[in-house]
Amino acid sequence: MNDQSLISEQLDLTPFFIEGYEDEKRKIVDSITKACCEYGFFQIVNHGVPLDLTSQAIKLSKAFFESPNEANLKCCPLPNAPVPAGYNKKPNPSYGFNEYLIMLPHGSDFNIFPADPPLFQEVMEELFSQFLKIMMVVERVLSECLGLPPCVLKDFNNDRSWDFLIALFYLPATEKEKIGASSHKDVSCFTIVLQDEVAGLEVQKDGEWILIAPQLGALVVNIGDALQLGCDFCWKLAFGGEMRPPIFDELNTSVPHVGDLVSSHMHDLRILTNDKFKSPTHRVLRPNGRSRNSFTFFYSLSGDKLVQPLPQFTKEMAEKPKYVPFLYKEYIQKRKENKSKNITRLEDEITISHYAIPEE
What we know:
InterPro entries: DIOX_N, IPNS-like_FE2OG_OXY, IPNS-like_sf, Iron_ascorbate_oxido_reductase, Oxoglu/Fe-dep_dioxygenase_dom. By secondary structure, this protein is of the alpha+beta class.
């Protein structure tokens, strides 16, 4: 029987914003560690993101997606954008979330915002900033969960230019179509999800789909595949080892399409830990009789990062690496090429198993 309290418990991050309270911090670290190992999901409260901001963001997002389609189309992505920042609508509403709005880091020339509703751009920019702040706190907590020096993950993953925020809109379910986002694993380091009051997010555990019910004021954190692995740079920072030379400069560094990023951004933490943390399979069900809105913030890796299991989870534990090293942008490109083949089965998708070392 699964201990579902690990993903329903609201973990209070207050102690991490003040000095002392080491016992309380230790209890929270223990709870997050268990949740990451078992589910790859946990929920946080008292995280520093104002409730009035998240409430306003959801309200404005609903107003935007419910506005006439002609108005929304005025903020479609620029033709040369590396990621389709702005408003996007899928032609087939039966496939996944139908509409979404992407924001790249503040100041990007590719960001396009609607003029209506008023304040939507200002609120999204503030939400991006607040999510980035709490992600840095979560990053420090996860380092402690893994027994790493506090700044190892931060110093390794110090390029914030690949982060992005998405406002998502899911249509109501129909008799034939109930899936809002099909089952998948993400590839970034980790993700924050802000849900409205409508349930739909589910995580798979031992063949069972478990609802991650919305809770007022709570944010959902989702572990990604790359933390399940590790990298030479982290080893150098923590223990003074040699860093792999940058031999991949000639590779294409362009940012891939967001569809590949969304479904691939959460595998990073899984890889870094050599499968100690879990990158969960999850999905979103479309609600009956109403639409659903959410925001997802992807705390990502730079494409130039070389990803492989950390020595702390291989050499020091006398365990063999479960993955061969790979360049992050190489993986994203492979996924993009794979997606272009219009595959329909999850088992046909390129995932981090492509880099897994076969068991002897």
